[in-house]
Each structure stands twice: as structure tokens, then as C-alpha cells.
Amino acid sequence: MNRPALQDPVWVRATLLLLALGFVTLFLLIPLAAVFSEALRKGWDAYLAAITEPDAVAAIRLTLTAAAIAVPLNLVFGVSAAWAIAKFEFRGKSLLLTLIDLPFSVSPVISGLIYVLLFGAQGWFGPWLREHDIKILFAVPGIVLASIFVTFPFVARELIPLMQAQGNEEEEAALVLGASGWRSFWRVTLPNIKWGLLYGVILCNARAMGEFGAVSVVSGHIRGETNTMPLHVEILYNEYNFVAAFAVASLLALLALLTLALKTLVEWRMRRPDPLPLEPHHEH
Predict the structure, then answer these.
(1) Quick one: which of 18, 209, 226, 273 has the most CB atoms within 10 Å?
(2) What is the C-alpha separation between 227 and 224, in angstroms, rounded?
(3) Quick one: pLDDT at residue 273?
(4) What is the mean pLDDT of the chain?
(5) Which run of H or of E encompasses 8?
(6) d(Cα 91, Cα 111) in Å, to the nearest integer?
(7) Alpha helices per DSSP H over the chain
(8) What would the pLDDT profile of 256-276 be if each residue is shown by its tens digit?
């Protein structure tokens, strides 16, 4: 029997495996263990007190609120943009793709400063907003806008290659059979992209809850009002309240682990083909 050309010696595979396990242990498992160990250093009572005190509860609520607004909006935008780019040819298509990728190339801090330039007291719209008593910066709307900006590529970028690979044949067949464009989307397009869509939503939600740079610039760090969980962790750490800081950080870590589990499940489901429907049994 011929040996496969790409089969490496056992020692090479063992070395690569040990290197991978070493990196995972050093840069993932040990830091995670340190977070939970420090959070529980003074016992469960101190831990529960840290995550249930009013400022922490407000930070948790604001983080979930911002994600609950940003993710659905990015879902609508991502599906619309992916559908347009993958299914149609139009002028400005390359520009739209470039704009979708913009948050990947712009620092989150810079994106926050853009909102300061637009909505700050001395910004372009600042005087008008002040006259009409509308508050964007240092309030929930600014945090939501910053979260939307840094997360809006995730759903679109997950769906565009998936929809391009699937082609237009099934949608065209549905239209030939008399289905409307909307019905074709719900009955043909959406079932074909459902796992990729869920994957993009999971990544979008993880980034929205963990965002620090852009939110830090527009929030104003008002304790109990505009601090998200990452900002609250920073404040507690700077105050040398390490147990409380690591307690709130452990909640973010748990959310990250939950996101990773969901991501792994969706990846497994995307690789697994959908079962073929059973043919109806005809009695003779």
C-alpha cells in the first residue's frame, strides 16, 4: 500500500498538536481560569454582591439593550445588502462592498470620534440637537449607533459568499412558477441561508456586547447610566476593586463561551446536509 504523499511523520503531527494545545492553554484557558478564580476569591457572597449592585445591573441592562437594538437592525441590513449584492448587478456594487468592509479597517476609537464630530456640542449637528433637546452623545442613542457601526459587516459578510455560491436558479424557478419576489424570498432564499444567517447574528451579537473602543468615546462614562459591561469593568479595575471587576468580567466571559458554543453548533449544522424529504407512500 502506498503511503499518502501529504501524510506527515508522527513526530511532526505530535509537535504541531502540542504547540496548538500549548497556545490554547497559555492564551485562553489560563486567562479564563484567572478571571473566574479572581472573581470568586472572596467567595460567592462577594461575587453575587458585585454583579447585583445597582451600577453593575445598569451596565448589564445597557449592554443587552444596545445589543438587542443593534443586532436586529444589522440583521435587516445584512440580509438586504447580501441579497442585492449576490442576486443583482447594479452600478455602485463595488462601492457598497467597500462600505460594508469599512468598520473592519477603521479603528473603533476613530468611529466613536466620528460621532463626536457629528453630534457633539461643537459638531455639525450639535447646535440643532441642542435646540431641539435631543441627546445623542453620552446617552443610549450614541452607544447604539456606535454598536451598529462596528457590527454591521458581520451578517452581510457571512451571507454574501453563501448566497453567491447558491446562485439564482431556485429563485428564478419560483418566479417562473408564479411566486412573488417576497414569497420567493421567504420560501426559497431564507431557508437556504438560515444557518449562515444565524452564524452571522451570533458573531454580531458577540461583538456588540464586547465592544469597548467606540462605546467608550461616545458614552461619557456616566456611572449607572451610560456604562456598558466592558466600561464598568474598566472603572472597577481602575478603582482597585479587583473582585468586582473580575466578577463582571466573568459574566462577559460566560457570554463569550455561550457564543462560542452556539457558533460551534451552527458550524456543525452548516456542514451537515439537510435530510431529504421522504417520498410519499402510494398504496396500490
Answers:
(1) 209
(2) 6
(3) 61
(4) 85
(5) none
(6) 27
(7) 10-24, 30-39, 44-52, 54-87, 93-105, 108-119, 126-131, 140-151, 153-166, 169-176, 181-184, 190-210, 213-219, 229-238, 242-271
(8) 888 888 888 877 776 766 554
**Dihedral of CA 35/40/44/49: which sign?**
negative
What tens digit of pLDDT does each residue of 160-179 get? 988 888 777 777 777 777 77
Total length of the chain: 284
Torsion of CA 159, 163, 166, 168, to 10 degrees: 160
Contact between 119 and 111 under an 8 Å Cβ cutoff? The reply is no
Residue 284's pLDDT is what? 44
Per-residue pLDDT at 283 exceeds 50: no
Q: What cell does 264 get?
A: 460551534
Q: Output the nine-digit C-alpha cell for 168.
A: 439564482
CA pair distance 284, 139, nearest whole angstrom: 71
